[in-house]
Amino acid sequence: MKPKNLIMFLSLMPAVLFSQDSLEKLLKKHNDNSVPYISVDELNGIKNEVILLDAREKNEFEISTISSAYFVGFDTFSIENFTQNFPDKNAHYVVYCSLGIRSEIIGKQLKKAGYTNVKNLYGGIFEWKNNNFPVVDSTGTETEKVHAFSKQWSKWLTKGNKVY
Q1: 72-106: b or e for each residue (b if 16 or more CB lie within 10 Å)?
Q2: Which residues of the chain have pLDDT under 50?
Q3: CATH top class, domain 34-163
Q4: Residue 96: in which H helix or E strand, if any?
Q5: Is 3 exposed, middle or buried (0-12, 13-18, 19+ CB in 10 A)?
Q6: Helix (H/G/I), strand (E/B), else coil: 18
Q7: What is the mean pLDDT of the chain?
């Protein structure tokens, strides 16, 4: 893990360990909304018109992902590699993770690199699944499994089968 990402990630742990009252409060505590949110309902309506980016770790992505999402990772994310693979800085990108915290960090890097249309999926894949939208496994087969990240974070995932 890059030192900068490690520091940011470790700063998230107290909120996870000491329960938040709501997802909204959790996200307000850790995000500055510099990457605007898109709701799961909004994304569902335009999913085929955006480039969907999964900013979780590889083991999370392999258990379940939103169909058509590209793995960009968090620990291993490289803006240099990203710009080589996704050179269109005006395309519409939606970044997600488990809840929307790691994805904001990645979204900020994209915006700093000149990407103009970047959104953060509010509530991430957990909110997507909680709203009965499908997820797929590494073979593209629909699954009920969702990587819940940790026991503490899993409280935000209310539907599907939690995998750790």
Answers
A1: bbbeebeeeebeeebeeeeebbbbbbbbbbbbbbb
A2: 13-20
A3: alpha beta
A4: strand 92-96
A5: exposed
A6: coil
A7: 91
